[in-house]
Design goal:
23% strand; alpha+beta; 35% helix; 11 helices; metal-binding; 4-stranded mixed β-sheet; nucleotide-binding; binds adenosine-5'-diphosphate; binds magnesium ion; 60s Ribosomal Protein L30, Chain: A
Length: 350
């Protein structure tokens, strides 16, 4: 679909493993004070002094987590880093280093990996994290990418999923549902392309939602903003699977209930119009669609004045006693039990 019309291809075997690692990582510079030794020895050496360290990892598999027929490799590299950094920020920590491991088949020429690493490089620069290591190996079929991210935070700053208290406000950053609807558009265009390969898709009217799917951002800005506003959420999680299941994670770990208001859920106009076009209920998408990488948090009501004028935050509900249960309050003011459908389940329904 998004094919390179002038491919010049170099077989990976031309470089050998070490030549390949050197070639792909030569432009990465170390910027973090805590990175004592990056790529090039048996292990990286890091010094975080007395700060607590947060560590998270994700494994992405071709045709399970990404589809190269509409995901350019550069975007894939960027997104692979972003999804990990999002987990670090969800702990209210600062991301500092990543490692990247890849398994790649000989179907991929050097130029494809250069694209992948260009995306990784762009993300490292944008989020100011160092690439300090990884592993490179062969695969018999597709591409596998595993990213591990490290971050730091003072122990009293780290925010877990288990701190939500009754009467806390449920707060969401940005808007949601876009990444899922972007995926629906890309899947549809892929089917059209299969039938007519000369048909280059015009995605301009879906620009925002397609970008939400192909080039998501992690909310580093929110971590900085919370510090500036002197707000420490009582709990926080990143929205990778849809807010319904994320809210339930917070409720379960915090032993609380909640009320989520349908009419408060922030949706971009493009999400609403695309839902109408696909004849899908936008609230279903908003609460079950995944991969938006926004932050969902609970804050004490005392902190409400600090966030209320800020357009980055929307109060979408509040926390209750556990015995009250977990409900979505619809526009018609009926309470429906919240279920963790998740976006995979949503896909299976079709
Ligand atoms: P070892 O044989 O000890 O595992 P490698 O030869 O795999 O070492 O790696 C050499 C160096 O290159 C190490 O610093 C390793 O972390 C780094 N490295 C290997 N593969 C990658 C990769 N895909 N991206 C970034 N760094 C890598
Ligand atoms: Mg190795």
């Amino acid at each position: 679909m998004l094919e390179d019309k002038n491919p010049k291809k170099t077989a990976l075997s031309k470089l050998g493993e070490f030549g390949l690692i050197d070639h792909l990582t030569q432009n990465f510079k170390i910027n973090q004070e805590s990175s004592i030794k990056g790529i090039g020895d048996d292990a990286a050496v890091l010094n975080f002094n007395n700060a607590q360290t947060v560590l998270t990892t994700d494994l992405l598999i071709e045709n399970v987590h990404f589809d190269l027929s509409y995901m350019p490799l550069k975007h894939l590299g960027y997104k692979a880093v972003v999804v990990n950094l999002s987990d670090v920020y969800a702990m209210n920590a600062k991301a500092t280093q990543i490692t990247v491991s890849i398994a790649v088949s000989n179907r991929f020429p050097l130029e494809a990996l250069e694209d992948l690493y260009e995306g990784i490089y762009t993300a490292c620069k944008h989020y100011n994290v160092d690439l300090v290591g990884g592993d490179t190996t062969s695969s018999t079929t597709g591409l596998l990418i595993s990213v591990t991210a490290l971050g730091i935070a003072e122990s009293d700053k780290i925010v877990y999923r288990n701190g939500a208290k009754p009467n806390d406000l449920l707060v969401l950053t940005g808007d949601i549902g876009g990444a899922f609807m972007g995926l629906q558009v890309l899947e549809r265009e892929k089917e059209v392309f299969k039938v007519n390969p000369n048909n280059q898709p015009d995605l301009s009217m879906y620009a925002y939602i397609v970008e939400r799917q192909l080039k998501p951002e992690a909310r580093k800005d929110i971590i900085d903003l919370l510090e500036q506003l002197q707000v420490k959420p009582t709990s926080m999680i990143d929205v990778s699977d849809g807010i319904s299941s994320e809210i339930l994670h917070i409720c379960k770990q915090s032993k609380v209930g909640c009320e989520l208001y349908e009419n408060k859920i922030p949706l971009d106009p493009q999400v609403i119009s695309t839902c109408e076009e696909f004849d899908i209920d936008s609230t279903t998408i908003a609460i079950n669609g995944g991969e938006d990488y926004e932050l969902l948090m609970t804050i004490s009501q005392d902190d409400y004045p600090k966030i209320k004028a800020n357009p980055n935050f929307t109060v979408i509900g509040y926390i209750t006693e556990e015995a009250k249960g977990k409900h979505l309050i619809t526009r018609a003011e009926t309470a429906i039990p919240l279920k963790a459908q998740g976006w995979n389940a949503l896909n299976d329904q079709e």
